[in-house]
Amino acid sequence: MSALVNAVVMLGMLVIVPTGLRLAERPELDLLRRLWPLFAVPGSVALWLPRGATATALACCYALGTVVLALHAPRRAVRGGHLDPAGIALLTALVTPAVAGVALVAERSGHELFGFDLGILALTVPHFHFAGFAAALVAGLVCRVSDGPAGRFAALSVPLGTLLVLVGYFVGDWAELAGALVLTAGMWTVGLLTWRTGLAEGRDRTTRLLLLASAAVLVATMLLALSWALGEATGLPHPSLTWMAATHGLGNALGFALCSLLAWRRIRTEEPDRTAGTDRTGGRTA
């Protein structure tokens, strides 16, 4: 793994996931959130070690945490009964880190899982922290505060696009392109709703800037994702994986995910009046 990818993955492990779990405001996730450093710190150390038994063992610690997180998804689905679009987005956020965790174990052990080379596995780890966990979580958050079809579309299309991209890994480049199209449509809708949220009356300057920055970044990063997927499917010139990691990956990690979650944390902690009359996930009470 390159130093850049390692740093981005560490951000996902140590900051994005626990911050996202706090924003989910699910009491059943509180204990896991508090214990998360016990999984994330060994996983972070594993990134910087040579491939081998030690790195694999530490990666397994992190993968265990992601699997425990994923196991909350079916429990929540059964308990919740009918799932609304925001609930589906949250379930997607709970499951996707496990894909990253499994890929991390395979890459650190030097095993080409399902025939994927180690470079692809290394990039799968940040992808499912940011295009998986963070994207689905933010899509659910904007859906909760944006009544109407746009919010529901965002909350459904981001999980669907993420699933199609994952299927494309196995089926082929055209399926991955379809996933990229759906995911881009969903993320641009998330960006639009985030922009509107940032422009809302009474929004403090810092929160506004974080929201607007995250929305603007999505325009560029998802265009890069589309250009890469289109090039892979058609053979047209497109950015290299190294370039994608340095632009699309870094932009999504810092510009979108980190800015979005920091903004939503400020909204939840510094503007309680805006969430008055909402349920524990930020949705309106009946």
TrEMBL record:
<feature type="transmembrane region" description="Helical">
    <location>
        <begin position="209"/>
        <end position="231"/>
    </location>
</feature>
<feature type="transmembrane region" description="Helical">
    <location>
        <begin position="177"/>
        <end position="197"/>
    </location>
</feature>
<keyword id="KW-1133">Transmembrane helix</keyword>
<feature type="transmembrane region" description="Helical">
    <location>
        <begin position="118"/>
        <end position="141"/>
    </location>
</feature>
<keyword id="KW-0812">Transmembrane</keyword>
<dbReference type="Pfam" id="PF14158">
    <property type="entry name" value="YndJ"/>
</dbReference>
<feature type="transmembrane region" description="Helical">
    <location>
        <begin position="55"/>
        <end position="74"/>
    </location>
</feature>
<keyword id="KW-0472">Membrane</keyword>
<feature type="transmembrane region" description="Helical">
    <location>
        <begin position="6"/>
        <end position="24"/>
    </location>
</feature>
<feature type="transmembrane region" description="Helical">
    <location>
        <begin position="86"/>
        <end position="106"/>
    </location>
</feature>
<feature type="transmembrane region" description="Helical">
    <location>
        <begin position="153"/>
        <end position="171"/>
    </location>
</feature>
<dbReference type="InterPro" id="IPR025450">
    <property type="entry name" value="YndJ-like"/>
</dbReference>
<protein>
    <recommendedName>
        <fullName>YndJ-like protein</fullName>
    </recommendedName>
</protein>
<feature type="transmembrane region" description="Helical">
    <location>
        <begin position="243"/>
        <end position="264"/>
    </location>
</feature>
